[in-house]
Design a protein that fits this description.
Two copies of one chain form a homodimer. The first copy, chain A, is mainly alpha-helical. Helices cover about 65% and strands about 5% of the residues of chain A. Chain A contains eleven helices and two strands, in the order ααααββααααααα. Chain B binds a DNA duplex through helix 4.
Chain lengths: ~250, ~250
DNA sequence: CTCCCTATTTACTCCGACATATTTCCTGTG
DNA sequence: CACAGGAAATATGTCGGAGTAAATAGGGAG
């Protein structure tokens, strides 16, 4: 049972607009709290969060707020509610792990290293193929977006937030060039995951090598329309990230 | 604006448990209605669904029900609500297209053929790589699950629902053998999409070729632990589906 | 004539109570 | 002793109202 009160919910009412924090609404804060609890394993699949009124009292909020939070969790496939039976945590394979918010919850506490590995493995599968398609379908605007992102990466290093944002922009530009909405959505999730990992572990040694030349190789191949070279160049990039993840697993 | 009343919501109260219909709850029905409206383009990104009370009256439901529905849409990244500004439809790149429910909404009306193509393209990228991993990591239980699914596919043909379910089970067993939760979640979405397409267009000519031998080749390669052969065999499978999608685009 | 400050309108957010459906337990019968 | 039917208990689903934050429009000053 959650013993902590919801004093953390007070902060979100203060910060106004587009905060990325625990949730800018009351029910958002509750969803964050419950979501992290589920993702961290505090509530295992099959457990029932019985007692709508009990939880509402526990969290010092009205039943409506608690109910809206449950609605969010239900929408993401984490729980399912049935009258009398209570709210049950669904099995993992029903969870929508690719949801950016769920990803945030997964990385809020101690992220499961196996899950991080699976995400980078997925990235290693998708991005080279995306680079291949981008090489075939990119237009001038796409190339300009990639070029701008590269320039920004050179100005700021990857140790700064601006530099990491430029890195994300570069990959996003590639995904946009694929003219594939499903891929684009997927990349948004993966990008968020990568962002969370870098934010979680601020390890300085994470950049053992200058990433710019590898990125330039990807760009050149896409600009030249060489699909095979683009896929191979991107393969080098993501394999480096995958290796980095594997090495950090041994810590 | 939605002119139809929500009499369709009555049916969901009757059917009890795990119905796959428009929504087994009232707010679920509203979310379905609004979700399909957004996915079909009836409400374009940037449009505001202003008037909580107006919509609630329009739909003949209470504000709470409408509000819960909006909460679901918000959780899936389709809309964002702010005081005074109203509820605004977010740009497409914020949408969680991989959410099974969103996929259902996309296929509820006239599915966008470009989007269907992008989904099958994603499948063509992911599944061969998944087969490769499965060949390296599968154990006896995985192989048994695949074998059982194959047997079920032989018993029922793909023209029946049971046969298609067996097909999904086969692919799911492969994805489970990858030991990759992110891939598994993704395959659930893709499987739902494939299911929706077959359900949407009941074209008899969609099966020009006996799919069993191709599936057996995938199974044999995975059982043998031959990663390259597994990837190639799966490639044949998904390329056939992709070609089928492309040909149906010309209708 | 333009810019800034203020007040009003507007629409979302939160709250507490009522109605309803379902599960479980108990009792009676075969 | 086992099974079926009914009643009670409990959680979910629904409803209308009050509070609050924000955007727009209007007025005043520069």
């Amino acid at each position: 049972m959650p013993d902590a009160d919801l004093t953390t919910a007070d902060e979100n009412t203060k910060q106004g607009e587009e905060a990325r924090g625990p949730g800018r609404r009351l029910h958002g804060a509750i969803a964050h709290k419950l979501g992290t609890a589920i993702l961290s394993g505090k509530y295992a699949p099959g457990d029932i969060l019985s007692g709508e009124v009990a939880f509402a009292e526990e969290l010092q909020v009205s039943r409506s707020a608690y109910r809206e939070a449950i609605q969010v969790l239900t929408a993401k496939g984490l729980v399912a509610s049935r009258p009398k039976a209570g709210t049950r945590v669904l099995p993992r394979d029903r969870w929508n792990l690719l949801d950016p918010e769920v990803l945030g919850w997964a990385f809020a506490g101690e992220p499961d290293i196996e899950f991080v590995r699976s995400l980078f493995e997925l990235r290693a599968i998708v991005e080279p193929a995306a680079a291949r398609l981008a090489a075939q379908r990119r237009d001038k605007a796409d190339l300009k977006a990639m070029k701008d992102a590269l320039a920004a990466m050179r100005r700021h290093t990857l140790t700064t937030e601006a530099g990491r944002a430029a890195d994300r922009d570069f990959h996003k530009a590639i995904l946009q060039a694929t003219r594939n909405d499903a891929l684009l959505t997927l990349s948004a999730s993966i990008g968020a995951a990568v962002n969370w990992t870098t934010q979680f572990k601020q390890r300085a040694r994470a950049l053992p090598r200058n990433p710019i030349p590898d990125h330039v190789k990807v760009y050149d191949a896409i600009a030249a329309g060489d699909a095979a070279a683009a896929a191979e160049a991107m393969n080098v990039l993501v394999d480096l990230a995958l290796e980095d993840t594997r090495s950090s697993m041994e810590d």
